[in-house]
Amino acid sequence: MLIDGFTVVAQIVNFLILIWLLNRFLFKPIRGAMERREQKMADALHRAEQAEQQAQASSLALEREKTAFAEARENLMADAREEVDQWREAAMERTREEVASLRQAWMTSISRERQAFLDRLKRQVARQVVRIGEKTLRDLSDQGLNRQVLRVFMEKVSDQKDALNHPAANQEIVVQSGIPLDDEDDRMLRERLSTWFPTAAPIRLEAHPQLGLGIQLVVGDRTAAWNLLDYLQDLEAEIMESLFDHVRVNS
After folding, report:
1. Which of 101, 180, 195, 205 has the highest Cβ tally under 10 A?
2. What residue spans define the domains of the chain?
3. What mean pLDDT value characterizes the chain?
C-alpha cells in the first residue's frame, strides 16, 4: 500500500484544524464554563465562610449581650430586693413608731381619765365628809361645843393681837358671834380682849346667827374670825391634799 504524502499532510492539517476548532469552539468554552463555575463555587464558598464568620460573630455578640442582660437583670433584681427590704424595714419602723405613739397616747389618755375620775371621786368624798361633819357638828351643837368654838377663836385672836393692837387704839372692838355665849364666856372674852387691847374703847358684843358656828372680831377695817365653814373648807383642802399626795406617792 502506498502512502500518499499529500493525503497524510492533508489529514494532519485537517486534524490540526479539528483540534483548533475543538479547542476554539468546544474545549475553551467548556473550560471557561468550568472556570466560571469553579469561580462561582469559590465565591459561594467564600460567601458561606463569610456568612459563617458573621454568624459566629453575631452569635458571640448575642451571647455577650445575653450575658450582659443577665448581669443587668441580676443587678436590677438585687437593687429591687434591696429597695424592697429598705422600704419594708422603714415601713415596719414607722409602724412600730406609730403603734408606740398610739399606745403612749392611749396610756396617757387612760391615765388622764383615771386621774380625772380619781380627782372627781376624791372631791366628792371630801365634800361628803365635810358635809357629814358639818351636819354632825350642827346636830350635836351644845354649850360645850360653843365654848370650844370660843376657845379656838381666842387662840386665833391671840395669834393676831400684835397686828390688831395698833388699829384697836382708841377704837371700839366689836365681837360678832353666831353662837350664844353665857355670862361666864362673855366675862372671860371681855377680860381677855381688854388685856390684849388695853388702849381700845369698850368692847361691844353682837349676836349674828347668820355666822352659824362662828365668831369674829372687827376693829376698824381689820378682822379676826373663826367659823365652821372656814374650818371645814380648810379640812376639805387638807383632805384633798392628803388624797392627792397619796395618789402621787402610789403612782
Report:
1. 205
2. 56-140, 143-250
3. 77
